UniProtKB/TrEMBL annotation, chains A, B:
Source taxonomy: Bacteria, Pseudomonadati, Pseudomonadota, Gammaproteobacteria, Lysobacterales
Protein origin, superkingdom: Bacteria
PANTHER family listed in its UniProt record: HTH-TYPE TRANSCRIPTIONAL REGULATOR BETI, HTH-TYPE TRANSCRIPTIONAL REGULATOR RUTR
Pfam families according to UniProt: TetR_N
Residue span(s) of domain HTH tetR-type: 14-74
Keyword terms of this UniProt record: DNA-binding, Transcription, Transcription regulation
Keyword hit for Transit peptide: no
Annotated region of DNA binding: 37-56
Listed InterPro entries: DNA-bd_HTH_TetR-type_CS, Homeodomain-like_sf, HTH-type_TetR-like_transc_reg, HTH_TetR
Protein's recorded name: TetR family transcriptional regulator
Amino acid sequence: MTTENLGRRERKKAATRQAIADAALTLFLERGYDAVSIKDVADAADVSVTTVFKHFSGKEALVFDLDQEMETGFVEAVQTRPSDQSVVDALHDHILALWRAFEGHSQRNQFVALIDSTPVLRAYADRMWTRHTKTLGTALAKELGQDANDPTCRAAARLILDIPALTRDGADSEAAIRAVFSLLRDGWSDGNRRFN
Amino acid sequence: MTTENLGRRERKKAATRQAIADAALTLFLERGYDAVSIKDVADAADVSVTTVFKHFSGKEALVFDLDQEMETGFVEAVQTRPSDQSVVDALHDHILALWRAFEGHSQRNQFVALIDSTPVLRAYADRMWTRHTKTLGTALAKELGQDANDPTCRAAARLILDIPALTRDGADSEAAIRAVFSLLRDGWSDGNRRFN
DNA sequence: CTACATAAGTGAAATAATTACACTTATTGT
DNA sequence: ACAATAAGTGTAATTATTTCACTTATGTAG
């Protein structure tokens, strides 16, 4: 799907990019993120340092080869949902699907460990998700017939995109997902209880 | 309160730190963040580059001289609230107070413009708030008699700390605050409406 | 098929943030 | 007064990132 029907040039370009990403991930998992320089990655992939920067915006981006697919995924999830489904339910299903797909990856544990142990990568990962707050918020607003900048839609979008960040520091991911969607559906009864 | 009853050493240290922060802010507002190097700041404050790094963890930190006070502020807000007040109400009050204090600053507009126009600073500001998710979440859990890692408490904490990030990209701050607390109190009725 | 335009890749050099190190100087507590 | 300690200095090294002028491969119009 991604490497089809393209000219030789495009194919070679994609191959180079992939070689760099692969070399980077291998080295990072082997030695740790900070112990690997961009030059190391370039050498391992047999390209120049300049070429690495032609393909990736910076060192952190070498770790996350996805990013863009995510944004469209969320937006599509709400737009193409069955007509009798609420947007909250659609997003709930989407997240669960993403989660299960991620679970079934062999390198998953190493990968998570790499990110958890590298502050720069944690920060980058968080931003990677929350960067799409505006887009998802607008998509939600459109679905519900609200203004594009509707603050409630944006806040809801943000809370949902916070989920990956919430599943760190020894938190149970599935519980975090449940908690977020419970908040969205019913609010926070505990927090609103008064003590008098 | 901050510069009292300290020895000469501590006082000079604080003065140096302040001189650096002041020089940095002045230069950043004048020329823009990227056009000012750490060396420029050091020269303007008449200290060595090394000294700058002794006081601030990095270039971004030069802009945000608060950070730590914020965390304790939120935690105290919930702990010292009147006994007939819910934690949500206490946090609502606290945020509104912070907001009003910030409004009454002469440099506020320039400051906001500086951050909005500098991607690195936006990212840093977001992290600065959400960094305290775990602490505030734990404090909330303790108040409510839940487990320290209770996912709902943590999610609620995160949503509240998201507020500053939500007030960007042409969003109305007060509306964002209202939206977040409405979500916390009653959930998201619009998002849960089904269309059949 | 040829020639030209263009995009990918190269290599070197410049800039700037960040860290390490060995050193001087000022402050503090005894 | 003195020894311990913390603040500050200056230099040098490391490394991410950008810029630039250059080569080479590919695609394409004629």
